[in-house]
Amino acid sequence: MAHAHAVTPVAPPPAGGSATRKPTAPPRTARGLGLALLGLAPIGFLVVFFAWPVLAIVGRGFAAGGLGVVLGDPRTWQLAGFTVATAAASTLVAVVAGLPVAFLLARVRLPGVGLARTLVLVPFVLPTVVVGLAFRALWPDGGVLPIVLANAFFNVAVVARTVAGLWARLDGRTTDAARALGASPWRAFRSVTLPALAPAIASAAAVVFLFCATSFGVVLILGGARYRTLETEIYLRTVDLLDLSGAAALSLIQFTAVVAALVVGGLARRRKDGARIGSGRAGWPSGGEWWVVGAAGVVLALLLTPIVALLVESVSTADGWSLAGFRALTSTGEKGALQVSGWDAALNSLKVAIDATLLAMVVGVLASVVLVALRRSPAKAARGLGETMDAVLMLPLGVSAVTVGFGYLVTLDALPGDLRTSPYLVPLAQALVIIPLIVRMVLPVLRSVDVRLRQAASTLGASPLRVWREIDLPLTLRPLVAAAGFGFVVALGEFGATSFLARPTAPTLPVAVATLMARPGELNNQMAYAACALLMLVTVLAVALIDRLGAARGRVGEF
Q1: Under a CB-based contact definition with an 8 Å cutoff, are residues 24 and 461 in contact?
Q2: Band of residue 347 on the pLDDT scale cut at 50, 70, 90
Q3: Radius of gyration (Cα) for the chain, nearest Å?
Q4: In angstroms, what CA-CA distances link 277 with 161, 167, 282, 554?
Q5: Which CATH class is domain 56-310?
């Protein structure tokens, strides 16, 4: 837009100079101040809605003097041992199953690879109650094996897509050189490719272990009263026994394991950033590569098995095939199992998930912008601050959702309006869960924007906000929409914190499913499976949209 200005005489430019004065970039102090103000929003959100509630509930527990008692109880360490053992076993299964799929996604050009890319992501964003009931359809009595397999089922995508993201960019000439010197395909993989992939594998394994160690819905449904992890024991002690000191001690043990996993993942990412990349290429498999492709096909088929079992169970009754469970969603279930109808619970889930996604997108995008600026700073202290902030943003994934939820009830009455009775209490808790995932999706996209474009705009006098609006936003709009869709489906299926905070008169669909499964009656069971089928359908459609937008290609799950 043209602007009218008063014309004033100016001195002629010096010889050889330009007649037009170049706008200068904003002073470094102003840029630093703007960056600090942007960083205050995500940090302030985490302090108020994560650190404060968690520290409050842990402090109350420690004040009761039960820390020493709990830490000295052999059953505590049995719980910790069982948690670590099952998480480690699930991580191993996920890594072994994910590597062939990573090869398929990164190095193979065959019809159907795009569909495989979408399929492998579906389990990762399925609600935990859906996966729990799907494996319960296969193992009605539950047990340790279905817990291990269900947690691995969730996390194959993390391994496959994280490793594929690096594998697709590895320089293939080193492997070709090894083959030219007489190495067999297996030896070339073992001595050249595998060491190059090790940082990505370690990073993915650390995140998978974190997710498995804090798994809640799967263990609650498949473990029952026989098998408990730290997460379900924290829930039991907080909700049923009101043992805050015991829950606080267990949270401390869990938090220690989470920090260790984050440190390992951070070190692995740092090594991965320095991995040698080159002209990675995908092509038609040859020789022994067909065995790897076949293994990937078996893994994908196994991933479909629980999903098919759940769909079959949703239309199965003692009298044969029936859609009674789907029709019953218009009611409150057998003998009034719910206080609202199934469809009301579904609509409430949509509303809560939309609110949580909008909040998480604002916080997550701001945090990503700050992280990009800090990582590109020439100052070593700024880069170190960026790495610390990145790790802190991941903490909500590893802290017990029950601890966070109970902390809300303890602390949020001190804020104006008493958020404990607010309809935004559940969206706040869900936003905490999906903010780290959104950051992990948005951050690589922002880092890929050519910094020279930003510098040119700044040199021409554009403010940081205008640079973001005119440079970053057009280049990242589609990935941002994909990140929002990803966050939406994760929020839609969130169960841990929601099960603790949602009111009976306004349950989300996953909470309604858990309530139905706890009530007797075949119709309640059918309603639960029908609701899970609907959640799964929404998840599949959303994942297909994410991949269509292209933001998730080689990036989703890249923790």
Answers
A1: yes
A2: very high
A3: 26
A4: 17, 9, 14, 15
A5: mainly alpha
Find residue 249's DSSP bridge partners: none
**How many Å apart are CA 216 and CA 429, to the nearest integer?**
15
Closest listed residue to residue 215, CA positions, set 364, 307, 352, 90: 90
Give residue 146's pLDDT. 92
What is the domain partition of the chain in residue ranges? 56-310, 324-407+422-553
Are 539 and 485 in contact by the 8 Å Cβ rule? The answer is no
Token output for 105: 């996604």
CATH no., domain 324-407+422-553: 1.10.3720.10
Question: Which amino acid is it at 59?
Answer: G
Contact of 134 with 312, CB cutoff 8 Å: no
Q: Among residues 468, 243, 297, which one has the least CA distance to residue 370?
A: 468
Please report, as a single letter, which amino acid is at residue 307: I
Helix, strand, coil tally for the chain in percent (to 5): 75, 0, 25
- For the beta carbon of residue 22, count every other beta carbon within 10 angstroms: 9
- H or E element: which one contains 274? none
532: amino acid identity, one letter: C
Non-local CB neighbours of 327 within 8 Å, separated by 6+ positions: none
Nearest to 513 by CA among 230, 126, 119: 126
Q: How far apart are CA 473 and CA 462, in angstroms?
A: 15
> Residue 12 pLDDT > 60, yes or no?
no
State the pTM of this model. 0.77
If you search the block for the tokens 């320089």, which residue do you land on? 171
